[in-house]
Amino acid sequence: ALLYIILLQLAGIFSLHVVQKLCFPYFWKDVFYLMKVIRYGARLEIFKITSNVVTIIDRFVQQAERIPTKPFLIYEGITYTYQDINERSNKLANVFLEQGTLKKGDSVALLMNNEPDFICVWFGLIKLGCSVAFLNTNIKSRSLLHCFNCCGAKTLVVGADLLDSLEDILPSFLEDSISVWVMKNESSHTEVQTLLDKMDQASDKPTPPALRAATSLKAATLYIFTSGTTGLPKAAVITHLQSLKAAAGFWAYGGSEDDVIYIPLPLYHSAASLIGVGGTIEMGATCVLKKKFSASQFWNDCIKYDVTIFQYIGELCRYLCNQPKAEGEKKHKVHMGVGNGLRQDVWREFHRRFGEIRMCELYGSTEGNLCFMNHIGKIGAVGRSNFFYKLLFKYDLVRYDMVRDEPVKNRQGYCQHVNKGETGLLLSKIGASSPFFGYAGSKQLTEKKLMRNVFVKGDAYFNTGDLMAEDAEDFICFKDRVGDTFRWKGENVATTEVTEVLGMVDFIQEANVYGVEIPGNEGRAGMAAIIVRPECEFSGKKLFDHVLNDLPAYARPLFIRLQESMEMTGTFKQQKFNLVESGFNPSTSCNPLYFLDYSEKSYVPLTNTLYGSIVAGERKL
Q: What does the H/E/C string look like for 81-105?
């Protein structure tokens, strides 16, 4: 009888296992992932309750004391230990402490390319209790001055190789009482102060811990600039809460202190700084920093430095797949990639070429209050949800009218949920567990990202501006962007910023900027429909010179469409949907089309032959 009971129990367990495999195939993976999320969340809750916040810089100092001689950073073949970076950042902090030019709570702008001193300056300033604004190295003079006004910075630290790019606006900095410090021993600009010579003389002793101490998770620690729908770059407020959440990314995916992380993305973006560097610190791991991504050097670097995890954007993986095949492509130790924007076709080709590397897609904007993580690794999904996840993070997909460019409302004026599998606009509810900190310098910009009275009177949601779909298995898939932002070359392009720049050209009366898809390319390329002033003529050369001087490469419209009038929506907004749908094929367009040709240094007529070479991938974009 006992044997019979045991056999029944075993049969029951086996049956449950079979049912779980068939009906809930991801059950245990979901459970283990959620346990990690809850465990990390509990740690943050303790910080809230005790007002004793262990920040990223605190964590770094702890790691430097625990594993001082362990490699923290490898750059161009040179290894820097945790102790090396800790002491050098102390030197930077002590320079400003001795100068007496900075105090706790000040905001400092940082304009540097990827290099070890980017991290040393960042950490050194945080040790003084300052907040740091990461400036995109691609932005031009007008945008750069705007960035200072946003975050209230009165001090700029600039990399040695970028000082010359400030030549035109240095007088404006002086007028605004902004002090400029360059990472050099000497400078030909008398108004620019040097840092390297002073750091050589400074002490490497720690600054008082009280200077960097934080009592609230909601205190700002960084400003990261993001292009949005309102024109010029916006300074997203990054709090200790956001930076700590981002630093848990690698760990949540199963990373450990034994991993070596390859960071080829720019540090001024949140992916490289918050997830990459922050994640390395959280685990006590090692990172390999690349000055600039190189498809030809990527796998050689991975093999040389025993890389196990790399960061990516979809475009990066596509470049790697387009590289000529080489021997030893699979002879590496990489087991994981963490990033976003990976197309399904590129994902499959990447696996075929380079091995079954676990690609961990994640979704979340710099300023957003929601994050999805595809911890299962399903191809094509940016994240995964389930019943328990929805209890922790409140989000909704609502119907969106692409033609009218606005959410669909019912008779009561509220948004409508989409059905399972349908595409909808992703909204994330704002609450105590998922706050939205907005942008520095303007409450109006922050308010524009909010939607109020969405389902009931008084509620508030963060509008991601992204169209998503959730399938029957609870996988989240990205479909498209809406409104006035599109993504090209791994950067967000704000159409209104480009429109404003185009509006400065004397022969342009009106411009409507949008993104169009080019086969084989990630994201959307910029295109502008323009109306030429009646008394003027279109000049491809003049327009080329203007966009070259005033726009970063990724934001320059590749295509121009000449029109006599602009189609408007019922709410008097420029109509983009039909323009996006019509694309840039000259054989189907009744309007003259032009292409940005760097060899001719002009916008040239887009012929059928030129169109064919672009679509075939023969033309460099």
A: EHHHHHHHHHHHHHHHHHHCCCCCC
